[in-house]
Design goal:
With 145 residues, this protein is α+β, with helices and mostly antiparallel strands. It has three helices and nine strands; from the N terminus they run E-E-E-H-E-E-E-E-E-H-E-H.
């Protein structure tokens, strides 16, 4: 995520509101969780709130290779269009097709039903812990790279 704007218990083990401890994060406000070499990816509640109501998504194609830190899609809200960046390198295994009919799930449940895609992870570079991400959010207060 850039510009202005599993999966389990959304509130259990949070360091701050909406920052689950069991996930890893990026400076660009994506999250991932890895299970047996496969990662589920989404945007954080912080990003979803900053974007406002999500109305359209362009997700990477199944089978596509994504590179950590590189653009792999976009998220459009009523007020902004934002890039989606891969938090890890790997081959896309699945996209959340349910979001085509209801992209607002990204806002309502960013850590559960609002996940974006899954990939077979080859490399994760620079993922942040929940505590480091919370500090980043407190420091940026909505400022995007």
């Amino acid at each position: 995520m850039t510009s202005v704007p599993h999966l389990s218990r959304e509130s259990e083990g949070e360091t701050a509101p909406s920052i689950p401890r069991h996930l890893r994060y990026t400076w660009d406000h994506e999250w991932l969780v890895v299970d047996e070499g496969n990662a589920t990816v989404g945007i954080t509640a912080f990003a979803a709130k900053a974007l406002g109501d999500v109305v359209d998504l362009r997700l990477p194609a199944v089978g596509a290779w994504v590179e950590a830190g590189e653009s792999c899609g976009r998220i459009e809200s009523l007020t902004a269009v934002s890039g989606l960046y891969a938090p890890a390198s790997g081959r896309v295994l699945e996209v959340n097709t349910a979001l085509a009919d209801d992209p607002g799930v990204v806002n309502a449940a960013p850590y559960t039903g609002g996940w974006l895609f899954r990939l077979r992870v080859e490399n994760i570079a620079g993922a942040l812990s929940a505590d480091a991400y919370a500090a980043h959010c407190a420091h940026t207060q909505g400022d995007r790279r």
